[in-house]
């Protein structure tokens, strides 16, 4: 399915809803860069993914805990589009689901083009709300040398471009597995671009 498959309108008009697929799900109970692929994950509203080191109402990011442990956790769920892996392969990198630390690997939706506040419905029950983009850190180069520069670079117009996925918070409980459908609900009003969280 093309990343442009389906359209969605923000003005309440009728249109085909954007849909994609969950390719893989991953979690890790320890703070490591990559996360092992698992058969399914359980999302809990306001908390994150059961058994994942980044779950919690307040930040679980090791650096952010040191600076402000009371900060709300806007990075409960990390999503990466699987199409990125083919792009990276063409640039000499070998990356597969879970290896960039994502919890949910998707296909068919251009995640980076989604506006702030987009709701993503995963499987039959779970839902997350998009909070921003992931900013690649130096750990990526420890995983594969040179990968950070590929996932975060400046274009000819001076804009910083990031390709390391998006972050979200859980707004509805549910279990998610590979093969589940992914549906997009765009927020009402003027779309706001994603910042970094």
From TrEMBL:
Bias type Polar residues, positions: 1-21
Region (Disordered): 1-28
A GO molecular-function descriptor: molybdenum ion binding
InterPro entries: MoCF_Sase_C (IPR005302), MOSC_domain (IPR052716), Pyrv_Knase-like_insert_dom_sf (IPR011037)
Positions of the MOSC domain: 36-185
Gene3D superfamilies: PK beta-barrel domain-like
Protein's name in the database: MOSC domain-containing protein
């Amino acid at each position: 399915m093309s990343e442009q498959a389906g359209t969605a309108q923000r003005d309440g008009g009728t249109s085909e809803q954007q849909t994609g697929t969950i390719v893989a799900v991953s979690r890790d109970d320890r703070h490591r860069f990559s996360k092992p692929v698992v058969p399914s994950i359980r999302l809990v509203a306001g908390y994150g993914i059961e058994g994942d080191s980044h779950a919690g109402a307040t930040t679980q990011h090791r650096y952010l805990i040191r600076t402000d442990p009371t900060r709300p956790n806007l990075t409960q769920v990390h999503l990466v589009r699987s199409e990125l892996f083919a792009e990276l392969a063409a640039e000499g990198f070998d990356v597969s689901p879970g290896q960039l630390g994502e919890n949910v690997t998707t296909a068919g939706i251009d995640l980076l083009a989604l506006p702030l506040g987009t709701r993503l419905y995963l499987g039959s029950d779970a839902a997350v709300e998009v909070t921003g983009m992931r900013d690649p850190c130096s750990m990526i180069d420890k995983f594969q040398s040179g990968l950070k520069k590929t996932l975060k670079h400046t274009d000819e117009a001076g804009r910083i471009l990031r390709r390391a996925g998006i972050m979200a918070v859980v707004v509805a409980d549910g279990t998610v597995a590979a093969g589940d459908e992914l549906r997009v609900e765009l927020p009402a009003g003027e779309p706001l671009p994603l910042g970094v969280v």
